[in-house]
Design goal:
Length: 89
């Protein structure tokens, strides 16, 4: 079971970052209103970035690093996103 760091684009244009082992289930949970509190009032959300990680600790570190980025840096990450990106460090 692999871990992923992901970003969602919310209805208001904001970005939400999280980590999970099941991207499809997690995005569905956010859109059903049972995901994070932040996304409940900003539905629907769309997956715009996902990066596989080798373990939970790596996913948490990458999530924290992404959350420290500026809005512009996050937008560039989304624009440069390629589904075949390497695992996070």
């Amino acid at each position: 079971m692999g871990w992923y760091v992901y970003m969602l684009r919310c209805r208001d244009g904001s970005l939400y970052t999280g980590c999970t082992t099941d991207l499809v289930r997690r995005v569905a949970a956010h859109n059903a209103g049972t995901g994070a509190k932040y996304t409940r009032a900003r539905r629907p959300v769309a997956l715009v970035y996902a990066q596989p990680c080798r373990d939970h600790a790596a996913a948490l570190r990458r999530e924290a690093a992404i959350k420290k980025l500026s809005k512009g840096q996050k937008e560039r990450l989304v624009l440069d996103f390629s589904p075949n990106e390497e695992d996070c460090p």
